Amino acid sequence: MSAPKAAARLEAERLLAIVRTDSAADARVAGEALVAGGIACVEVSLTTPGALEAIAALAGHAAVGAGTIRSVADAEAAVSAGAGYLLSPHADLAVVAWAREHDVLYIPGALTPTEVAAALDAGSPIVKLFPARAVGAVYVRDLLGPFPGAKLLPTGGIDAANAREYLEAGAVAVALGSSLINAATIADPTRLAALAGQARAAIPTSTTTTEAT
Predict the structure, then answer these.
(1) Distance from the CA of 41 to the CA of which of 31, 127, 140, 178 falls in 20 to 30 A?
(2) Which residues neighbour 52 within 8 Å (Cβ) at sequence distance 6 or greater?
(3) For residue 90, how far is the Cα from the chain centroid?
(4) Which of 120, 137, 213, 134 is nearest to 174 (CA)?
(5) Catalytic sites, residue numbers
(6) Are the C-beta atoms of residues 68 and 84 closer than 8 Å to each other?
(7) Sheet holding 109-110, edge to edge
């Protein structure tokens, strides 16, 4: 998937689920449950043991990405495993350059205005706002003042109850992690699929929103 197509898919879905588990098997179970619940964009964090194996297993079922990319080597391994896009908690300029050269969507992390500006100046089409819980939804609107048109993906502390606040503040999409995928829900995939469905219903796709209006 090219970088523009991956970015368009994420913006259309407006919802990304972050899978961080104790094993590749759990990651695969969680990913399949999320897809069954209607969530199409799934990130598997490289902090998950066997993450590359899980990415490979899910690549045919979801728009799967790799998270916690810390180096070019991480990026190469993740894309080789089947990841269609990459995310980091920080901005790695070497990964930015590699991703541009290989036409892969890379979403770097930023928090402060200086970090957001650096990510945008490096050509990042989407910037991960992390940790969003530290600043709240109003911060998204504040950042869009000096950075109009910036595409922000808030991550950290977001759940189905507050996700709309971030979207209404101007975020292009939101990421849900432990509020959705945790030890209890992984142990009960049927419940996880149901929760994923509830999250999907609470955060309609941009296509759904357009059609409804």
Answers:
(1) 140
(2) 46, 77, 78, 81
(3) 14
(4) 137
(5) 43, 128
(6) no
(7) 109-110, 127-129, 152-154
**Contact (CB, 8 A) for 130 and 110:** yes
Q: Phi first, then psi: what are they for 202, rounded to 5°?
A: -75, -20
What is the DSSP code string of the chain? --HHHHHHHHHHH-EEEEE--SSHHHHHHHHHHHHHTT--EEEEETTSTTHHHHHHHHTTTSEEEEE---SHHHHHHHHHHT-SEEE-SS--HHHHHHHHHHT-EEE-EE-SHHHHHHHHHTT-SSEEETTGGGT-HHHHHHHHTTSTT--EEEBSS--TTTHHHHHHTT-S-EEE-TTTSSHHHHT-HHHHHHHHHHHHHHS--HHHHHHH-
Structure tokens at 201: 């219903």
Measured at the CA of 148, the angle between CA 147 and CA 152, to 5 degrees, comes to 75
pLDDT in tens, 65-76: 999 999 999 999
Q: Tens digit of pLDDT for each residue in 162-207?
A: 999 999 999 999 999 999 999 999 999 999 999 999 999 999 888 6
pTM for the model stands at 0.93
